[in-house]
Amino acid sequence: xxxxxxxxxxxxxxxxxxxxxxxxxxxxxxxxxxxxxxxxxxxxxxxxxxxxxxxxxxxxxxxxxxxxxxxxxxxxxxxxxxxxxxxxxxxxxxxxxxxxxxxxxxxxxxxxxxxxxxxxxxxxxxxxxxxxxxxxxxxxxxxxxxxxxxxxxxxxxxxxxxxxxxxxxxxxxxxxxxxxxxxxxxxxxxxxxxxxxxxxxxxxxxxxxxxxxxxxxxxxxxxxxxxxxxxxxxxxxxxxxxxxxxxxxxxxxxxxxxxxxxxxxxxxxxxxxxxxxxxxxxxxxxxxxxxxxxxxxxxxxxxxxxxxxxxxxxxxxxxxxxxxxxxxxxxxxxxxxxxxxxxxxxxxxxxxxxxxxxxxxxxxxxxxxxxxxxxxxxxxxxxxxxxxxxxxxxxxxxxxxxxxxxxxxxxxxxxxxxxxxxxxxxxxxxxxxxxxxxxxxxxxxxxxxxxxxxxxxxxxxxxxxxxxxxxxxxxxxxxxxxxxxxxxxxxxxxxxxxxxxxxxxxxxxxxxxxxxxxxxxxxxxxxxxxxxxxxxxxxxxxxxxxxxxxxxxx
Length: 554
What we know:
Elements: H1 9-12, E1 28-30, H2 77-97, H3 99-121, H4 132-156, H5 165-196, E2 199-204, H6 207-219, E3 225-231, E4 272-275, H7 278-288, E5 292-295, H8 303-314, E6 318-323, E7 345-347, E8 350-355, H9 365-398, E9 403-409, E10 415-421, H10 429-434, H11 446-454, H12 461-467, E11 471-473, H13 480-489, E12 502-504, H14 506-509, H15 518-530, H16 534-549
Parallel strand pairs: 2-3, 2-5, 3-4, 5-6, 11-12
Antiparallel strand pairs: 1-4, 6-8, 7-8, 9-10
Helix pairs in contact: 2-3, 2-5, 3-4, 4-5, 9-12
C-alpha cells in the first residue's frame, strides 16, 4: 500500500484573519539610505520544528490548501494598451503598404498573428522601466513572421502578384516602426502615471542591498513604485551583517563611495516600518493597498519566504526579483546572449525581472483525461480475471472485507474514497487514518504480502481513475491527517494538489514510495506538474509497468 503523509491544515491556521487583525505591537523602522556595512547580509535558513499531534479533520470536507484572504483581480490595463498599440500600428502599415488589392486579404491574418507572437515572447508583460528601443528587435522579428503569414494567405487566395518583395519589406519596416512608436507612447504615459501615482510596494530582504534598492525606488519615481515597508521573513536576526540597525553613534554621515549624505533626522526619506510575521505583512498589504513586492533573493529558497510569496500571490500582488550583479559578489539572473526576456531590465543597476508568486495551473486540459479513459477502459477488461482471482484469494484466506476503502485528498483538496485490495486489517478507523506505514506489520497475511509485493493491491484504483477521482499518473494521494501536516512542514507540498492525483507518478518511478522523504516527493511532484506533457505520462506508465515485472512493490 503506497503511503504519503498528512495533518489538518485548517488547524494550522490562526483563528484570527491576519488581514483584519488590529494588534499592531511594536513597529521597527529602518532608514531608506544604505549604511556602510561589512558584507551584504543574508537570511539564515529556518529550522523545521516538529509539529504537535493534530486531531483528525472532519470527514468529506475539502482540505484548505491555499491561504485564505481577499484575492484581487490581476491588472491587465497595461497589456491591453500595448495590444491596442500593436493592432493600430499593424493596421496602419497594412493599409499604407499593401495596396488596394492585397490590403483586404492581409489585414486580418497579419493583425491576428502579431499579437499572438508578441504574447508568446512576453512582450505584453514589460518590466519596471520598459523602453521601446529595447523591444524593437523582438517586435521586428515578429512583424516579419506576421507578414509571412499574410503572404501565405495571399498565395492561398491566388493573389501572389498583389504584393511583391519590395512591398513585403516595406510593410515589415513600416509595421515595426509604427508599433515601436506607439509602444513608446504607451510606455511614456505609464511612466508619467507612475510618477504621479506610484504603486505601493514591499521590499523583502535584509542588509545593505535592501536599503540600496529602497533608496533607488524612493529617489527615482520613474520606476513607479513607492516602498511602504521592509519585510524580513524568517526568524529575526538583529545581529546579522547588514541588519537594520543604525551606525555606531546613530547620527547621519557621509556614506563612503556613494556621493550622498545620510540624513540624521530622516527628513529626506521617512524610515520604513520593518515587519516579519505573515500577520504584519497582511496588515501592510491591506493598509497601503500593496500591488508589488520586490524580493532580493529567490522566494523559493526557504520555507518562510515561500509561504510569504504564496500569500502575496493569492492577494494579487505582482512580484519582482532584484539582485546585484557580479561586482558585488552576488550573481543575479544572467540570461544567455540573445535570450534576454522582455521583463528583464535593471533597477538602477540591479538586475530586475518579474516573478510569478502564485503557482500556475497545470496545462493538462482534456488531453490527460482522454489518455486515462483510453487506457483504463480496456485495462479494466483485461485485468478483470486477475482482479477476480485476487478478490477470491483475499476472501478465502483472510476472511470477509475484500476491499479496503480509505479517504484520500485529491485535486484542489477534494476528498474521495480510494479503493484497494485489503492486505492488513487495521485495529480501528483512527489507526487507518493516522498510521504512516504498515510495511513489515506482523498482521499482514501471506496473500497480503504477495499483493503488496506485486502491487496488485492497487488494481481497484483503476475504477477510481474511470470515475474521475484520480488519474493514471500524478502525485500519490494521501490521507487528510497527513496532507495538512506536511503542507505546513514542507514548502510546495500543498501545491501538489494543483493536478489530479495518480496511481503512479514521477516520484514513484524514481523509487520514492513507502517510507521515503516527503520533501523529495514534493519536489518531484511539482516538477512533474510544471513540465507536464502527454509523452511524459506515457513514459511514466511504461516505467511503472517495467517495475511491476521486477517486483518492486512495497
